[in-house]
Amino acid sequence: MKITTKIAWRNIWRNPRRTWVLVTSIAIGILGFLGTSAFSRGFLEQMVESTINLSGGHVTINARGYQDNPQVRFRITLPEQVEAVLQKAGGVTFAPLISLQGMINSSETAAGVQINGIDPDKERQITVIAKSIVAGTYLSSGNGAHEIVIGNALAQKLNVSLGEKIVLMISDLNNELNSSAFRVIGVYQTASSDFEKRFVYIDKHAAQTLAGYADELSSISIRLHEGLLLEETVENLQQALADKNLEILSWKERNPLLLLSLEMYDASVVIVAIIMFIAIAFTIANSFIMVIYERIQEFGIMIANGVLPKRIRRMLYAEALFITAIGALLGFATTGLLVGYYSRNGLDLSNFAQGLAKFGLSAVVYPEIWAFDVMVGLVGIVLVVFLSVLYPAIKASRFEVVDAIHFV
């Protein structure tokens, strides 16, 4: 076996140009597959983080029916009981939320918006809106009865600036039109212009007054200290609040399309790997078919001297494994360097910022390599080697001795 391995190692360097063509093809295939996967994973992770950071944290607790039909009549009537359960849960941070569908009116135009009534101090620990203020200030607890924070895109659409007044209008709990004036004290900006146009923020008590609530809430937003405990936390809360007629929804349940995208991407990773590795397999198979026809006389002499056909097959497999191992190491090393660099510094896609903003993505993407993708790559390489060399190896071991020796 050691002799076969040594001969195989020497054989691959008999034609170094061909060897390096194969090595480069394998390395580029791995780089293309893992690089594409890493940047796509970065996009998906950014979408997930955007969903968690902007829209209710990891988990929300709503009145039953609110998720499907977010009307003012669907509300949590005894929020203090829910908050008591959450305080005992541990590992979570939560904040109250009053969410109302309404209209915002400036002196020039109007737009439909979702009005979020919040406790500013608690909301800071759930979403990133407070960190996204680009002009003015964020809401302050107990001092914002008639103050509002709006998105930059909405401010441009309404043509309003800091200090100006706007009017919010909603249909309250009694189906009566209710309105109130608010002064713009802050403007926030996120990666999503659509989000900026849709969501405005006012004090919780001001929102309750608009809706005709007493102490009721639309929902309670929860952020987990450990995101990996998502399913366990949801299950525990469902058991603890089973008699409260509430819905406990994770970000996955609130965003089924995003979850579907994540699940479909795992399947697409395998499909992309199959396509890329099929191309590599044809390259290896074609090269080894050329090799055996260049070395027919050599194989004939080996068989005539008593070398068993299985030793010839092992030698060709060893040659393919050496070439693949060098290409794989080169491909994985190059991928690791590139992805490692961009995962720290980010890939600037400012030229595509407008299109990315439609999906809530920033112009800088941080790629990630998942163990699943590496495993698919390794399994793919092993299968490529085995299948691509199978026919040439069998062909080389079945030459007739006389015909092989006299082959021209």
Q: Compute the CA-based radius of gyration.
A: 31 Å
- Count of alpha/pi helices: 15
Low-confidence stretches: none
Shape: elongated
Helical content class: 40-55%
Q: Structurally, how many domains make up the residues?
A: 2
Number of strands: 12
What is the mean pLDDT?
Answer: 83
Write down the secondary-structure element order: HHEHEEHEEHEEHEHEHEHHHHEHEHH
Quaternary organisation of the protein chains: single chain
What's the structural blueprint in terms of helices and strands?
Layout: H1 2-12, H2 16-54, E1 59-63, H3 79-89, E2 92-105, E3 110-118, H4 120-123, E4 133-136, E5 147-151, H5 152-158, E6 165-171, E7 177-188, H6 193-198, E8 199-203, H7 204-211, E9 219-224, H8 230-240, E10 246-250, H9 251-254, H10 256-294, H11 296-304, H12 309-345, E11 347-348, H13 353-357, E12 364-365, H14 371-397, H15 401-405
Parallel strand pairs: 3-8, 5-7
Antiparallel strand pairs: 1-9, 1-10, 2-3, 2-6, 2-9, 4-7, 5-8, 6-7, 11-12
